[in-house]
Amino acid sequence: DAMVIQNPRYQVTQFGKPVTLSCSQTLNHNVMYWYQQKSSQAPKLLFHYYDKDFNNEADTPDNFQSRRPNTSFCFLDIRSPGLGDAAMYLCATSRGADKPGEQYFGPGTRLTVT
Amino acid sequence: AQKITQTQPGMFVQEKEAVTLDCTYDTSDQSYGLFWYKQPSSGEMIFLIYQGSYDEQNATEGRYSLNFQKARKSANLVISASQLGDSAMYFCAMSPLSSTLTFGKGTMLLVSP
Predict the structure, then answer these.
(1) Which of A45, A48, A99 sits opposite B50 (nearest CB)?
(2) B93: which chain A residues are within 8 Å (Cβ-Cβ)?
(3) What is the DSSP string of A71-106?
């Protein structure tokens, strides 16, 4: 049974056209993360939510926003995608203070910007 | 700040043999966790194994074991009896307690028949 679900798996958007990626979890975990992973690179943390508390990484561009309306769902909004934003976007969850690094990842959404 | 170094961009191993993937780390934190993740070509990151900085025993999970040498700041992953399905990218990562993960650049493992 899928525990962290990401939709869509593949997304194509036009340069400058806003796009939203979604993530849902059935684990009831406190923390949800969004990572960006470019080809042959390590995942890069964009931001995370600890319950409703939003934590933005210092170098995450303003173009990236996130929403977490409830425990189960989290969204990544890219307001004006550029060609450099083409990447795999990974959502992950963890229980929180207890082993925060033990994260459960979704299958990712591969974003193409044309 | 934390830093993870994986010096092997790629590794080859024959099926049924053991392989060691290297990982060294740098941190000023006293308490932290070390992790290994597997990423097949499908893209999903799969948690493999965890080692706490105060754990005296090396972690093991099935065919995976973590060779933790705290004084040397190394946390190598050992995969025993390699299988074709083990071919993937492997990331070492660390997390201070109550904080977020820092990943290394990864090692691509190819298992040949």
Answers:
(1) A99
(2) 101
(3) SSEEEEEESS--GGG-EEEEEEEE-SSSSTT--EE-
> Do residue B44 and residue A106 have CB atoms under 8 angstroms apart?
yes
Query: Which residue, among B48, B26, B33, B55, has the nearest Cα to B107 in the 3D structure?
Result: B48
Residue B54 touches partner A, C-beta closer than 8 Å = no
- Name which of A102, A109, A111, A112 to mutate to probe chain B: the one with the most chain B Cβ atoms within 10 A of its Cβ: A102
Contacts of B44 in chain A (CB under 8 A): 105-108
Distance CA B50, CA B106 (A): 17
List C-alpha distances in Å: B46 to A17, B14, B19: 32, 22, 18
Type of residue numbered B55: D
- Per-residue pLDDT tens digits of chain B, which is 113 residues long: 789 999 999 999 999 999 999 999 999 888 899 999 999 998 889 999 999 999 889 999 999 999 999 999 999 999 999 999 999 999 999 988 767 889 999 999 999 99
Q: Which residue on chain A is closest to B5 by alpha carbon?
A: A42
Q: Which amino acid is at A113?
A: V
**Do A76 and A60 form a contact (C-beta atoms < 8 A)?**
no
Query: Pairing state of beta strands B32-39 and A10-13?
Result: unpaired
Helix residue ranges per DSSP H, A8-57: none
